[in-house]
Amino acid sequence: MVGEVIDADHPARRRWLTLAAAFVVALAFSSLRFVAAPGFEFYAGPVFYMLAWRWFGLKPALVVAAAVMTPTFFWWGHPVSIALAIGHVFVIDRWARGRHSFSTITLFYQGLFGSAIGVVFLSLTYASPIEVSAIVIARKVLCELVLAGAADAIVLFFRYDPRRVRIVRNEHLSLQFSIDALVSNVVACAAALFLLGQLNGVTAAVQSINERVSHDLADWPGRTDAPAGRSYPLRINDEGRVTRVFVASAATWRTDAGRLGCERFDTGRRSNTSDRNTFTYWLHLCVTAPLPSARVAIVPMRPMATAMFGDIGRRTAPLLLFLFVAQVALMVFRRAIQRSLDDWVVAIGKFRARETIDVRPTRFAETAELQALFATASNDYLEAEHERARLARAVTELRATMDLKLFSDVVFDPDECALRFVKLDPTLGRRDIVMRVTSADRAAFQSVGGQNDIMVEFRMANSDGDDWYLLLAHDHDAQLDGWRYGCVIRLRTAKAFQTQMRHNARLMELGGMASALSHELRQPLFTIALAAENGGTLLDRMGDAVLPARRKFDRIVEQVERATAIIQRTSTYARIERDEREPTDLLQTVQNAARFMRAVVQERDIHLSIVTPEALPTLMLPRVGVEQILVNALQNAADSIEAARALRVSPAPPDRITVRVEVGADAIGIAIEDTGAGLHADIADSAFQAFSTTKPAGKGTGLGLFVCRQIIDEVGGTITLADNVAKPGATLRMQFPKPSAALAAAA
Amino acid sequence: MRRVLIIEDDCELREELVELATTLGARVVGARNGAEAMAACTGEIDVILCDYKLGIENGLDVLRALREAQCFDPARAAIYLMTGHLDLTFAARQEIESATRGLFMKPLRPAVVRGIILDGHITSDRD
Question: Between chains, do B86 and A575 touch, taking CB under 8 Å as contact?
Fold first, then answer.
């Protein structure tokens, strides 16, 4: 069939002719049988119907099966093989589709179903002993298995191309079916060859027994006088076996032989050789020899033949068992390969769909490693891509949040307190824009006049003052009296930030209040308790008349203890608020405080500048508390400047607050210097005590610096307040220990 | 007779402390600040009860000055600090531990004050 190849470009008629020719060739091949050993015949039919199923489908395969198996009917005179072949095609159609090889299905079909049918059929038709049935079935299964292996090998390499009506080679071999075909063929052929070898010895063995029986009859003691119509034991020399000899009268020996089951007779002549190729020949063979006195000795060969076939069966059985085991192992192995391949398909599908690949453990080291590599690479890529998408989203959000505007020709008009610029819009072109700025922020713009790169925070004139904008501009142009390029960012978080800062300030104040109150109350409570105690002692000397008064004093002592307990609890709460340390960037903290206070500072026309080093070590500080210290300090500085202005008569140079952050040998210092009224010498000492203030009534609680000192004390720092040397104003200095210094102190 | 030195800047409180100690039979001197304490300090002092916060002065500094001036016998005198402040620095706590027998939180219970003055061996406030 493989040879039946014609050119492409064929009319329909030629196609049918080609297929018909192939069919005829297949039929011709199937009509041949090859006798490999007595009872072991090969025929090619099953190969053709399996190929027909694979290449043309179920219906053509059924037709081919019926046709190519027809010769068996003529050989053996029964249609059982044809029926089994048709069943075989249906079973293949049900289970073979891409999952199991012909070998596997054939072994299970013929080994289980086929053999059951065979046993029933043989025992009903030929009354075969079980030994013979077993050999016949083993022969049938092995023969079919060898043919199925051949079909597996052919479909592995070739396929039918319906467009070109020819058999073409496969470009790729299937991994699992290659292994399957190889192992199945090797095992099946080995088993078949073994059985062949066994059966080939049968003819000679039976022949030799046959001859020995004839020989032994010649020496049989009963030869001359054993009465006819009875059977006697006959010892076979060399074999050590005993069989039975029946002595019949010459007149009736054929009837007696029929009764004994003899259908064939070996008279010592070599004859009817073709009959010797079937098992039944040996079962129905009897050896006959004429005896004196018109008698005939009849020896049925059946017991000996049966014993021999039983021997062969016992020798072949382990091999057949191994065949089953090998097939089961193959099935398991094939499933594992299939699973591993399925995993690849799933993994690649997920790769294409951009989904995360889960690595399932597979049975094969080679694929497991590759799969893990593939999954890791794919998942990493996917994660990177997600990260990119997240970043893109974040950028979009950021743009939306910041309300970024880009423009050119930025000019600040101090007379109208307005910012003028040209907005560059890709769709609308150039547009002149004017932003009115609050008068409080005018100074901020004036202070940067003439600088090349500027950064100014400001508020719109008509807003409520909480929405801050940041102007970034550069490339100063003297002719324009402004900057060539710039952008404005709306700082939307300003309001929330301010609210949070105010809230923190209030909490801080409250904590400070509680702490200060408890501290201040401890002293008088102590005095009260002692006074009551001493008063009680005095009363004790006056006798029993004053006992009720004495009890009152005891009550005072008790109530002081109660008040003490309340104070203890209050102080504990006040501390918790401030004691949460966290890694703090001091520069950021300074900028936060300055940002919060900028409105106050600008409103009062004070110039606030911050001088910081490039970088600072991160400190463990109560960040919110430190922020509050700075806000307090800036507020105090601004208040002090305001107070100084009230006393002045003539206009003074612009007022300044300067915040300096400096890194010392074992501490980081922050100095807040103002040009305000300064301190009175006697105030400097008590400035950090609770309820101490120089501000007018209602302007301050006198708790600010008290709280500051408490916070700084807790982190092991120092805080001092002193008048500036040789110039007006005062400076508040704070020192925070550096991390290494703090560790040394703790040790 | 036990000799007691009380250093406290609050006038009323100092008076009450002195009276209580006197009632208990001790010979008591009250001092308002470091200078007064230095003047009143002798080698026979059995107990020193000192406030931590003495106006602009610090109780620890005062005690250190007294010790450096060797005006009391460190082997004999039992030294106690008292304070209304909760928030002492780490360094201050360490010094208090090494230089005194204990730090008491104001207000002290009268029974505790009695214990300090009578035997000088109260080591903790039972509150």
Answer: yes
d(CA A127, CA A130): 9
Torsion, Cα of A670, A672, A673, A678 (10° steps) = -120
CATH number at B50 reads 3.40.50.2300
Q: Which chain B residues are Cβ-neighbours of A556 within 8 angstroms?
A: none
DSSP A33-47: -EEEETTEEE--HHH
Which residues from chain B sit within 8 angstroms of residue A745, using beta carbons? 90-91
User: A746 and B108 in contact by Cβ < 8 A?
Assistant: no
Using CA coordinates, name the residue in chain A closest to B52. A523
Which chain A residue lies closest to B91 (C-alpha atoms)? A745
Q: Measured between CB atoms, does A716 come within 8 Å of chain B?
A: yes
Residues A189 and A79: their CA atoms lie apart, in Å, by: 27
- Residues paired with A486 in a beta bridge: A407, A473
pLDDT one-digit tens code per residue, A94-110: 887 767 888 888 988 98
Cα separation, A84 vs A109, whole angstroms: 9
Which parts of chain A register pLDDT below 50? 1-8, 271-272, 576-577, 742, 744-747
Look at residue B21 and tell me if it is in a domain: yes
Q: Which of B11, B22, B106 to mutate to test binding with chain A, by most A CBs within 10 Å of its CB?
A: B106
Distance from C-alpha of A179 to C-alpha of A364, rounded to nearest angstrom: 15
Q: Is B38 inside a domain boundary?
A: yes
Question: How many residue pairs bridge chain A and chain B with CB atoms within 8 Å of each other?
Answer: 72
CB B115 within 8 A of CB B122: yes
CA-based torsion, A200, A320, A134, A143: positive or negative:
negative
Contacts of B26 in chain A (CB under 8 A): none
> Contact A662/A668 with Cβ under 8 angstroms?
yes
Q: Are A633 and A671 within 8 A, CB to CB? A: no
Render the burial of A475-486: b for 16+ CB within 10 Å, e for the rest. Answer: ebeeeeebbeeb
Q: Return averaged pLDDT per consecutive 10 residues of chain B, 127 residues in all.
A: 91 93 92 92 90 87 90 88 74 80 86 83 43
**Taking a C-beta distance cutoff of 8 angstroms, is the pair B48, B16 a contact?**
no
- Within 13 Å, how many C-alpha atoms sit on residue A730's CB side? 25
Closest approach of B26 to chain A, Cα-based (Å): 15
- Report if residue B124 sits inside a domain: no
CB contact under 8 A, B17 and A530: yes
Question: What does pTM read for this prediction?
Answer: 0.45
The reported pLDDT for the residue numbered A2 is 44
Closest residue, chain B, to A710 (C-alpha): B87
For A12-202, give the CATH class.
mainly alpha
The CATH code of the domain at A582-746 is 3.30.565.10
Which residues on A lie below 8 Å from B51 (Cβ)?
Answer: none
Domain ranges of chain A: 12-202, 204-306, 354-402, 406-492, 496-576, 582-746
pLDDT attached to residue A67? 92
Domain count, chain B: 1
Give the residue from chain B lying closest to A541, CA to CA: B23
List CB contacts (< 8 A) between A525 and chain B.
106-107
Q: How far apart are the first and last CA of chain B?
A: 29
- Residue pair A692/A686 in contact by the 8 Å Cβ criterion: yes
CATH 3.30.465.10, domain A496-576, yes or no? no
Sheet holding A468-477, edge to edge: A429-436, A418-425, A405-413, A482-491, A468-477, A453-459
**Domain containing residue B85:** 3-119
- Angular region, A127: left φ>0, alpha ψ -120 to 50, beta rest: left
B34 located within any domain: yes
Cβ A734 vs Cβ A670: under 8 Å: yes
Q: Using CB atoms, pick whichever of B10, B20, B87 lies closest to residue A714.
A: B87
Residue A340 has a pLDDT of 84
